Amino acid sequence: MNRETALPKIQVSKSSALVLLGLGIYLAYLHRLGLGEVAESLQGMSLPFFFAALALSLMMVGFNALSWKRIAEELDISASLGDHFLIYLSSIFANNLIPSGSFSGETARIYFMGKVAGGSRYDASFASVAASRIITAVPFVLGMILGLGYLALGSSAPPWALTACFAMMVFSVSAGIFFVGICFEERWLQRMVSFAIGPLERIFRREVDREVCSGAVSGFMRSMQMLLQRERRGGLLASLGWAVAGWICLVMVAFAAFRSLDVEVSIFAILAVYSVIIVFQTFPFGLPGGIGLVEILMTALFFAVGVSIYDAAAVTILIRLVQLWFLALLGGVSTLHLLRRIERDRSCREPSESSSGAGI
């Protein structure tokens, strides 16, 4: 087995068909809702606020890249902020084009970091991504708690909305505790990897070297334990600070979208809706980025917290245009740039290696 993580492959025809299916579902929903009324809500859009939403989405990526970079530095991974930024965008592209939750995006991050950061180990890259996920989950959980508290005590949201938010919170916290557990308990992770090898061999029709996998898990655990050392706590706190800034920018994208339509909404209501949507997007529904289903649920939740149904649909379109299509487009360009860079570096190495071999 190759010791390197493989880049997730995008089946263009399949992904395109699924994207069209998702768009068809949402267009059918909008047609039933009232396309004319939704279009009327969009007509009054303020361009300065919309461009502010675009800028905030890029700031969100930048802050999350800074958070990840701070962790990578603690694991002696050498890569520039620009590299982290481009790789993070690439992971967004993979998440939105490959219908497998967030697994594809994290795999892309590990792959590109291993290629771009010269000399970095893949187990350290794994650990940096895993630790990044744990740290960025902290402001998400806090925002979820604040949003649920607002819905329960400060709004007249219907019972189904409260139930959905509470269920998503329980699910995400439980999944987070499980994820943290396997990241710091080698026996659990070794068992999970051993259990997954057989199905992976059948799916990809390739033989997996179990000793290599076991060694990679041990290296991953050493890297994770390294992050718990006392002298590295300052780096983790700095990473958490950047993650909080990224989460604030993410929420402010929706706030700017609402302001672009001159619609008043509580920031806590946005927190509640986002909490449900972000967890919902991780479910393997088979549609890239949850296209169609996410838009319908977001529209329904914004309506549930007091926004008119047509404004809710209009602001959902703007939010998804910024956070899905805009970032996916930039992520696609970033992915092409990184792949060409890796190929160029490989081409430069091969002549030098050939010359060295000829001189022996």
Automatic annotation (TrEMBL):
Keywords: Cell membrane, Membrane, Transmembrane, Transmembrane helix. The keyword Cell membrane applies. The chain crosses the membrane at residues 12-29, 49-68, 134-153, 159-184, 234-259, 265-283, 290-310, 322-339. It is found in: Cell membrane. InterPro entries: L-PG_synthase/AglD. Pfam families: LPG_synthase_TM. Belongs to the UPF0104 family. PANTHER family: UPF0104 MEMBRANE PROTEIN MJ1595 (PTHR39087). This is Lysylphosphatidylglycerol synthase transmembrane domain-containing protein. It comes from Candidatus Methanocrinis alkalitolerans. The lineage of its organism: Archaea, Methanobacteriati, Methanobacteriota, Stenosarchaea group, Methanomicrobia.
